[in-house]
Amino acid sequence: MPFARVCILYTGGTIGMQKSAAGYAPAAGFLGQQMAALSEFRNPALPAYDIHEFDPLLDSSNMTPADWLKIARCLEAEYAQYDGFIVIHGTDTMTYTASALAFLLDGLHKPVILTGSQIPLCEVRNDAVENLITALLIAGNYPIPEVCLYFGGRLLRGCRAVKSNASGLSAFDSPNYPHLGSAGIDLAMNWHAISPPAEQAPPLRVENTSLPLVGVLKLFPGMTAAMAKAFLQPPLQGAVLEAYGVGTAPDHDLELVRAFQQASQRGVVLVAVTQCRQGTVSLGSYVTGSQLERAGVVGGADMTSEAALSKLFYLFGKGCTPEQVRAELPRNLRGELTPAWPGWMKR
Ligand code: ASP
Q1: What is the pLDDT of residues 210-234, one digit of tens each?
Q2: Residue 280: active-site member
Q3: pTM of the predicted model as reported, rounded to 2 decimal places
Q4: Residues with Cβ within 6 A of ligand 1?
């Protein structure tokens, strides 16, 4: 793609922040000015790019599902004009947005790469230049039909990524899926792990029209039924249950089990993922897991919590009923989960 054009959507994050008395904060126009001043960003080896700056720029801790949809719509609007896309984003909730975009962008066949940095571009020692330059080279040269996250030398599938380090420069990983590529002396793509290109280039569609209310509930020793009930109140439509190990939860507290069951019966879709960094949920493996299944909880296989949350958001947001959401959750829609091997871990 010698004349590739890349669209950069700049949503905020540390990469373009400025120091203030209260700490780093986003500043309108600041990132573009700094990039214009650095010769690296004018190197002819880079694809041509345009920067679309969001208003307001956000520290990503302020991102909401409405912002996921705003980014998806913006990508949809610019899709035909460009060969690849970069979403510059804060690192704190980058994996949530990456997962959400993977679902929201139906029919995607061009690269969408989220990146950012742990140290702002304005600091003399930073990881911003490398992350941005490499993301630009990948977006402009490799026909990867996926939402990816590039950071610290690693190219990851967006809906498999987790933020694994709050202060290190290799801040992201995908513990349940191979890296899609790596940036060492050369850029090396792991084509076996990358989705194959679509046979025909379908149009990109963002079908979501509403903002369903979905959430995450992490189990912990001592959680009471009252706490769970308070969380599962209407208008909540779906929740990710971060369960223990292969998907277990206490069965001695019958009130707690009933809280999950009553929520399911009211149409709240509950999907169990594991609190462990790696591995998969198998609700039938233990009595303490199969009771969740009987209470209506769906097993989320090896999805990250972020992927499960945004999958609930996507499915409800495009109008699925609770029954349809329950049926779709265990299906592999965007490479976000490894389908269960029949009989896995059954004893
Ligand atoms: N708080 C920042 C953000 O998520 C952190 C970062 O970008 O690294 O926007």
Answers
A1: 999 999 999 999 999 999 999 999 9
A2: no
A3: 0.96
A4: 12-14, 59-61, 90-92, 116, 118
